[in-house]
Amino acid sequence: MKAPSTMSQSNDSQPARRSSPPRPDQLSDETVEFLTALDLYKRKEMRSFLRFEEIFPVLEELGYSYAGQRKALEESFDEALDALRSESGRLFPSWSEVFGVALELGWAR
């Protein structure tokens, strides 16, 4: 007798399964541009790790702007990242996911 597959069972007490990050060929040109700029920023500032809020200057350098107030942006950004963490079951979202959150919150060129 075959054991039931755990993939088909749903258990609300367990976190969502981890999904692998997208491959480079699955990313938009806009996302690749952001990731490249973020890597250059980290090298320039000699930082291995960044706080999520540190992407705002990188976005501005790429020509993006946010029309709302900065304080409201930071609160909305934190809430959106918390939702992403909850949805994905991962504590640390990928930078491409963080970029997607920023665009969803209204950053635009």
Properties at a glance:
single chain, 109 residues, mainly alpha, 4 helices, 48% helix, globular, disordered N terminus
What does this structure look like?
This protein is mainly α and 109 residues long. It has one domain (26-104). The chain is 48% helix and 0% strand. It has helices at 29-44, 55-61, 70-88, 95-104. The longest helix has 19 residues, at 70-88. It is globular, with a radius of gyration of 17 Å. It starts with 28 loop residues before the first helix and ends in a 5-residue tail after the last helix. Mean pLDDT is 81; it is low at 1-11 and 13-18.
Short structural summary:
By secondary structure, the chain is an all-alpha fold.
Q: Low-confidence runs (pLDDT<50, min 5 residues)?
A: 1-11, 13-18
Alpha-beta content class: mainly alpha
Q: Could you say how many structural domains there are in total?
A: 1
User: What is the beta-strand fraction?
Assistant: under 5%
Overall geometric form:
globular
Task: Output the helix-strand order.
Answer: HHHH
Head-to-tail CA distance between termini: 58 Å
| Overall pLDDT confidence | 81
**Rg of Cα set:** 17 Å
What profile does the largest beta sheet have?
A: none
Number of helices: 4
The helix content, as a percent range, equals: 40-55%
Beta strands, count:
0
Helix/strand layout:
Elements: H1 29-44, H2 55-61, H3 70-88, H4 95-104
